[in-house]
Structure formats: structure tokens, C-alpha cells
């Protein structure tokens, strides 16, 4: 299969629509990361997503729709606070998990009676979703466990020969995946932390909890299980108060002749040799926007990446640290 990268035009959108209607897959941009989309109504099409990615079959998918799509055709919208969340944050990087009406393939939710729905803010994503006008199941457009793609070239690097079309909407601005929030109960519960924070949701809904999965439990959202977001190079992760150990570890590896890079926040950049440290930025929003770009750069430039967690906590940092730890610190 030949893979084409195309700007988003009427011609490429028509091609994308025909691919989806034939049961194929198309990669498309969002404000967070690029997605690998297929017709959520088709068992065969949804299975192809799992096959292309090498994704575990118990890891649910998110359905993407345009902002005017009839939500009530897909889910039961029972909770008044859910509308408040949609009004406050959508379109945007927030995925809401509802009780499903069974209008899409059961494979999307791995047999669960819920459905995760997202309305992306990215202009190109909205054009694509409005043009095809169907529910599009889409995880990130990369091989399972690898770094999420934030450019069309990142998608091509992982999926060339596996998908016919990549819609190029430029670099993603947000950088990490959407927050996933369960809205089936009396108050919202975050299943995966992201760019919309617990504090923001709590201000709108009055209360918001964060769910912690238990061993052996079926996952209810993407990103709750397995190692994710990892570069192909070796990685090691240090806590903020372990900076001295990280610098020593870096020095030892460099003396051994290894190609090493550090990944850290701007405030501690000077502790590493000039040109050998990747700058995550100065605050949570910059960390989120830069993380995947720098992980992609690291795997091209080094044998081992030595990451130091930023000291900042709270807000969007919950999502940043989740991704950083899964990329550099989690076991397979």
C-alpha cells in the first residue's frame, strides 16, 4: 500500500470519505495528536485500527464527531452537568464517556456499555468530520506503545504502507491527548488526565474525582493501562529531587562513549552539557506542547534518554507527568 500525505482540501476530503466508506482508515490531525480514524459503525473497520497499530484488544477507542453531530443518536445524555462541561470545553481536548445506545461497533468500547465521544477543536479535524459526517473511531496514529504523533511526518514514520491517506493539518498545538472523563455517574470522574484539568472540571461541575484502576480490572478508557508514548531509545527517569543523581548518571554514560541526551525543564537545563539537553519549557502548557516533539527528536539523536521530571505539580502537569512516566518510567 502506498501512503500519501495530503493537505486538507475538498479533493483529499472526498478521498478520505470514500476510504472510510469502504472500511479503510485515514490519519487526521486534532489539536492534541494525530488520530487513526475508521468508521465506528463497522466491526471490520474498527478491527483494522487494532491490527494496524498492534493495539491490545482490551484497550477502548474514542469516537470523534463534528460539533453539530447529533450526540443523542450515539449515547444517553443523562447528567445535567455533562451539558455544562460541553458548553465550557467543547469543541476541545475533552472526551466524555456516556452510556452507549449501541449505534457503533461494540469493538470500539471492547464490549462495555459505555462510549467515549470527543469533539476536537482543530479546524482541519472539524472539516474532516463534518465532510464524512459519521462517527469516526480513532486512537493516536502510531504503532502501539510508541510516541504519539504530532505531525503528519510522525504518522508517516510509523504507519507508511499501512494507511492510504494522511491528512496534513500541520503540527498539533496541544501536545498530549485529551482528558477522558466519565459522565455516567452523579459527578464526573477523570479516567485519563490531559489538557482539561481536574480543577477546571470541578469549577464547572462542582465536583470531580480521578479514577485509579485496579489490577486485573477491564480498562474503561485509553491510556489507563500498558506502557505508552515511548521512544525506541533506552530511557531512565529521575524525580525532581534526584537532579544530582541524574547529572552523575549522564556523565557516566557519556564517559562510556554512549550517545546520551537529557530531557528536563528550562530551569535545570544548565546542569547538563550545552547542546545535550532537550528543553521541555517553563510551565505546564509548554511541557505538554513540547513533550512528544522532543521524545521523537531524542530517539533520532541518542541511545539513551535521561529524563528529569519537572518540579511543577497541579493543573495540566497531572497529564504531562502521566505521559512522561509511561514513556520513560513505566514497565512493559
Sheet having the most strands: 12 strands, mixed
Strand residue percentage: 15-25%
| C-alpha Rg (nearest Å) | 20 Å
Roughly what is the average pLDDT, rounded to an integer? 94
Helix-strand sequence = EHEEHEEHEEHEHEEEHEEHEEHEH
The number of distinct structural domains comes to: 2
Number of strands: 16
* Poorly predicted sequence stretches spanning 5 or more consecutive residues: none
* CATH evolutionary superfamily of the largest domain: DHBP synthase
State the shape: globular
CATH topology of the largest domain: DHBP synthase
Describe the protein's architecture and organization.
It is a single chain. Strands 1, 2, 3, 4, 5, 6, 7, 8, 9, 10, 11 and 12 form a twelve-stranded mixed beta sheet that branches. A four-stranded parallel beta sheet has the order 13-16-14-15, sandwiched between helices. Helix 1 (10-21) crosses helix 4 and helix 8 (284-301) packs parallel to helix 9. It is 31% helix and 19% strand. It is globular, with a radius of gyration of 20 Å. It has nine helices and 16 strands. The model has no long low-confidence stretch (mean pLDDT 94). With 332 residues, the protein is an alpha/beta fold. The two termini are 31 Å apart. The chain has helices spanning 10-21, 43-53, 80-89, 123-132, 152-159, 198-205, 243-255, 284-301, 317-328; strands at residues 4-7, 26-28, 35-39, 62-64, 75-76, 94-100, 114-118, 136-137, 165-168, 179-182, 189-192, 209-210, 234-238, 260-264, 277-279, 304-308. It folds into two domains: 4-178, DHBP synthase (Alpha-Beta Complex); 234-328, Threonylcarbamoyl-AMP synthase, C-terminal domain (Rossmann fold), CATH 3.40.50.11030.
